[in-house]
Amino acid sequence: MSTLPPRPRLFHRSTWRETQRVTDALRTETVGGALLLGAAVAAIAWANTPWAGAYTGLRDLTVGPSALHLHLTLEQWASDGLLAVFFFVAGLELKRELVVGDLRDPAKAALPVAAALCGVVVPALVFLAVAGGPGGGSGNVLAGWAIPTATDIAFALAVLAVLGTHLPSALRSFLLTLAVVDDLIAITIIALFYTDRLNATSLLLALVPIAVFGFLVQRRIAPWWLLIPIAALAWALVHASGIHATVAGVVLGMLVPVRASVRDRGGRSLADRIEHRVRPFSAGVAVPVFAFMAAGVTVVGGGLGAAFDDPAALGVMVALVVGKALGVLGGTWGFARFTRAELDDDLAWTDVLGLSLLAGIGFTVSLLIGGLAYGPGSLRNEHTKVAVLVGSCTAAVLAAVVLRLRNRVYRRIALEEQRDEDGDGVPDCFEPEPEPAAAVTLDGRRSSHAGDDGRG
User: Fold this and answer.
1) What is the pTM of this model?
2) Domain that holds residue 55
3) Fewer CB within 10 Å: N-end or C-end of the chain?
4) pLDDT at position 431
5) Inside any domain, residue 261
């Protein structure tokens, strides 16, 4: 009698090596998230004091050579320059996921990709429905449709750290992969939909330093004093072309080889060595400084009420809290229905709901797209900044409520994922189960199934 094959499992544990890599990456992002939150709180506090003019003056201070079209405000330097470093790290992470990570396997990649795509499309539709409803749709209000589409992984992990939630390794890996795909979609949206002008000459010239950078890293010729000037030239030319300069960061990151070769020292890939040096600067300096320059909005004296009266701001808030959760949860549920997959035994759909609410925390990329959509310093951009802050905090609180309900289960899973009874350095749950011993049947034949008594 034939038996049905077992159904595929959602959020099943990955390998121990992949789990270690995800844990190391998330640890750095958690520290960066705490710095990001501190910088944002400091900016908001300063912007709502009698000395708010000093904050605005600092943010709008212009520096840089005009001849190179780089006479920019400090806020622009933060969003165009420092965030290019952030997206360079995102490019490294995306390349690693595609080559040696979960995105390499189409079966494993399908779930986070489906959830990420739905987590982009549904919030955009919710924004358009709310912002374009009665009283909305006038002027450029709908230009901000992409603001609520990206998850801020650092902010989300900082929330998890405060909660003390022992999120299972499979869910942490899913959250990181979801954020990586989110970043790829976000940078594609920025390049395609938020490029007002295009200087083809500068763009073609940018291909030269990009090609040189790619040639050098492929040959493992990677001294910092050589790569940084080449990368800076590529960034400047992409900036001059009219395409947002953060695109240069992703492109350069994607060129770095992530597989170790005989030419790599110590058996570590060039991507690992570069990321080890660049990620702390990205998480500890670049993103917090951007947050400090972008998050300073006035919420006292009518600033908060004015934001709630703006249909664009309302659209952002509802899309982050409701749209993102519906998108990620709906994409995961639809994937399960389509593939007839089941959740792993230790997990429940409540866990997916909590994770989906957590994905509604948008900050870094949301603030960036808001400035591109409505113009830095514009009144509507200030309103959407308030909306991003309020929506992200609301999503964080709701996620905290849902995930705390399951924290006892998470603690039990965490203890199981740390148990190493054989002392080999690899937790037992990540080790492959031993092959069942072969049994000898009555007629002398061997059965591959333990416990098979040879009957029938």
Assistant:
1) 0.84
2) 17-194+244-416
3) N
4) 64
5) yes
